[in-house]
Design a protein that fits this description.
The structure holds two protein chains of two kinds. Chain A is of the alpha+beta class. Helices cover 25% and strands 39% of the residues of chain A. A nine-stranded antiparallel sheet of chain A has the order 1-2-3-4-5-6-7-8-9, covered by helices on one side. The two termini of chain A are 38 Å apart. About 8% of the residues of chain A have low confidence. By secondary structure, chain B is mainly β. Chain B has an eleven-stranded mixed beta barrel with strand order 1-2-3-4-5-6-7-8-9-10-11. The longest helix of chain B has 20 residues. The interface between A and B is medium-sized, with 25 and 36 residues.
Chain lengths: 199, 228
């Protein structure tokens, strides 16, 4: 074994140790998403799903804990679209996300988004596109929900999970775009968060 | 899908496979345990090594544990993109040490697609295999459709359970025997115990060579999958 080989070998050990340590840290993170009953949902938010709420399919309630922070989500299907309403622990509506397809995005907006990917990447594959509706109104949350359901309000942005490739290397990332399709931010995400069974 | 309906489906599936198998005379029950090690070599390349052990529980109208074989398996997988993977596999099966016949060397080529729709993941797997035995070589083609989903919520967190269900059809061709078609159905429940360890257990029902003369087998499966 030459000195060069030994250096290479050591580098592998360092990388391996680094990986094991990050794995160990990953384990200590206390993230949990669980299905909950309607009566475990924040009391203030419950009336929105009462008799005035439109007829939706598969309405489910979830609680998400990330360390000390908790949030609540109501998910359902309405007019063939998947909605996710996020509330804080007090029952205040934070945002609404709607899973969408490229064909349901306004042509000029989609054009801006495509331009961004064309400019910075060789290839892009959209995994999940969500329209976001941030609730920054000081008014009634119920009204806000109704307006979003009626498609009566402009979204506040897009969240896109996409696999991009550049010079032969692929990355899975989460991109944020503003309502006009202008790039806001991106961050790489771990593909492992999507895989749990050996295929 | 609510939790209750999932439980009902699992229960029904177990009941149906169990009853159907018991009503047959040419019926065997076997147990297969598997320890698998997965290692992500690079972003695109993953290796898997596993050790499988199979025993008869009920065989030739005889109840009792009798080891049939041991398998050493290696798979090298290349991720093409977020949905598609191709793999090459090499497997060695030894039956000699348990005084059974049928040692085997097997080569596998695999193409896999998996796509997630909210909580449920759908998988299509295509395999071609060359099973080299002492007396013959069997060329086998397989297709498997699988679904899996966490049993609580849309995301699998540590400590949570998940369900895997699959159906697979296999066509075996060899020079000296007529083609054989097998059908398998598998139901598994798994637990993600930590970031690196999951345990799975479940049942697999096999109708082997059902186009010639059906042999019914019920496998009790257990496996530990370790990520290193």
């Amino acid at each position: 074994m030459t000195v060069l080989d030994m250096i290479r070998f050591n580098r592998h050990i360092i990388i391996f140790t680094f990986l094991s340590v990050s794995l160990a840290f990953g384990q200590t993170k206390n993230e949990k998403e669980e299905r909950i009953l309607f009566n475990e949902f924040p009391e203030k938010a419950r009336p929105y799903f009462g008799s005035e709420f439109p007829k939706v399919k598969s309405l489910k309630f979830y609680k998400e804990t990330d360390g000390e922070k908790a949030s609540f989500e109501a998910k359902f299907k309405f007019k063939k679209r998947y909605f996710s309403l996020e509330f804080d622990t007090s029952g205040k509506l934070e945002d609404i996300e709607v899973i969408t397809k490229t064909k349901h995005i306004e042509a000029s907006v989609l054009n801006h988004i495509s331009k961004y990917f064309d400019e910075y990447y060789d290839k892009v594959r959209f995994i999940k596109i969500q329209k976001q509706y941030k609730n920054d109104s000081t008014g009634n949350d119920g009204n806000f929900i109704r307006r979003v359901l009626r498609n009566n309000i402009k979204n506040s942005g897009f969240e896109i999970i996409a696999e991009t490739s550049k010079s032969g290397s692929q990355t899975l990332s989460e991109f944020t775009f503003n309502p006009d399709g202008q790039f806001v931010a991106s961050r790489a995400i771990l593909p492992s968060s999507y895989e749990y069974v050996l295929y | 899908m609510s939790m209750f309906s999932i439980k009902r489906i699992i229960l029904l599936a177990l009941l149906v496979t169990g009853l159907k198998s018991l009503s047959q005379s040419n019926f065997q029950t076997l147990s297969e345990s598997n320890v698998a090690l997965n290692h992500q070599v690079s972003k695109k390349y993953q290796v898997n090594f596993s050790l499988k052990s199979r025993s008869f529980i009920y065989h030739n109208d005889d109840l009792g544990l009798k080891q049939q074989q041991i398998d050493l398996v290696h798979f090298s997988s290349l991720k093409l993109n977020h949905y598609h993977t191709i793999s090459l596999g090499l497997q060695y099966r030894n039956r000699d040490v348990f005084n059974m016949t049928g040692n085997e060397l097997r080569m596998t080529q695999q193409f896999n697609m998996a796509k997630r729709q909210l909580a449920i993941r759908f998988g299509h797997r295509f395999r071609t295999e060359q099973r080299i035995l002492k007396t013959k070589t069997i060329f086998r083609q397989r297709y498997r459709f699988a679904i899996d989903f966490p049993l609580n919520g849309e995301r699998l967190d540590i400590g949570e359970a998940y369900f895997v269900g699959s159906v697979e059809t296999l066509l075996s061709l060899s020079k000296i025997e007529s083609p054989e078609i097998d059908q398998r159905a598998t139901f598994l429940v798994g637990w993600q115990l930590s970031d690196t360890l999951k345990l799975q257990t479940g049942l697999e029902y096999r109708a082997e060579a059902f186009n010639v003369s059906t042999e019914n087998k019920l496998f009790i499966l257990t496996s530990a999958v370790l990520k290193i």
